Amino acid sequence: MQTTLHLSAQDDLYRQAAEEFGAAMGRLARGYEVDGDKRRDLLQEIHLALWRSFEGFDERCSLRTWVYRVAHNTTISWVIRQKRGRPQMLVSLEELDAMAVAPDADRHAALERLMRLVQRLEPRDRQVILAWLEGLDAAAIGELTGLSARNVATKIHRIKTVLARNFHAGGRDGR
Amino acid sequence: MAAEMDPNDPRSLWQSQEEEKVTVTIDEIRSLAKRFERRIFWRNFREYAVGVPLIVLFGAGVRSQQGWQRLPPLLLIAGIVYSMFQLHRRGAARSHPADAGLTALRDFHMRDLEQQRDALHTVWKWYLLPFVPGLVAVIVVRAMSRGVNARLIATGVFFVVTLIGIWLLNEWAAGKLDRRIDALKRMELKDE
């Protein structure tokens, strides 16, 4: 009986998380994996890790922080496993800023560019930019990543500079 | 033009992506969990599949030999059992850490890299060294019973080269992880 109740709470939390953050998890996977099949594998792994994690959820942090932590941490483990057989040249936000190119006019091309930009970033910077793109504020990003508030603020400033150099505000037909 | 751009706009661009359909129902998650368990089972099975036939083979050697002749297969069996246990223990620790929701990303990332690096750095201790007593015993017992000849020397050289080769490969992989950890630490220092 106790097991049933326990599983039910776990299931409920997972349902709630999948409903609220499922789309964000999909975008997170896209930010890390270009290949469609591998991305689906990653996404399934994130969902599974999330469901399993709720067995130990004790509300020490918000549901959102918990979900993002599990998703990012699962992803980073997955990336480390993948990269052992597939080295990839990654860059920091500063390096990316120095490589700014002309913005694209249409929305699809702009999204492609944004995706490529995210996928080229080193994990630490990628985690911050993905959280920022999802609408998290500096305090939430700090709680999620473990970076200091000052550090997060600096990174967000750099992110905005990089994005401003690379994108139109929606492009001519980009809204 | 860049100065006129609203840097917040990429957020809406990012969030407006088409949603990728993924498993969301509990039944699907449960079947995913079962599939995951099966994958772990088969991974363990593969680890045992290498060791078990060798244990059976050396077990037959123990039964057919007398006195000191039994020592090499016995030591090799002990080495296999120990390294299989270590492989299993380390494999179990890899799967879905329980504190993924409590650990901040920077700590988790660093810990994950360090754990993998340490596992590779210590391969000699938990994967190679356990076989050394058995392999040395094979050479010594053969030398005592049949004398030292070219074949025995070649066997000894083969053992040494194989062990050193495995150790070097793992050190090379650990070195790559070391460089990534150092880069991460440098980034942290720069950020602070």
Number of helices of chain A: 8
The count of strands of chain B amounts to 0
From the N-terminal CA to the C-terminal CA of chain A, the straight-line distance is 52 Å
Q: What overall form of chain A do the CA principal axes indicate? A: globular
The whole-angstrom Rg of chain B is: 25 Å
The chain-level structural class of chain B is mainly alpha
Largest interface: chains, residues each: A-B, 72 and 48 residues
The largest β sheet of chain A comes out as: none
Proportion of strand residues of chain B:
under 5%
| Secondary structure tally: strands of chain A | 0
Could you tell me the radius of gyration of chain A in angstroms? 17 Å
> Which oligomeric form is depicted?
heterodimer
Major pleated sheet of chain B: none
In whole angstroms, the N-to-C terminal distance of chain B is 33 Å
Mean pLDDT of chain B: 84
In terms of per-residue confidence, which ranges of chain B show pLDDT below 50 for 5 or more consecutive residues? 1-8
In short:
The complex is a heterodimer of chains A (175) and B (192). Chain A is an all-alpha fold and 175 residues long.
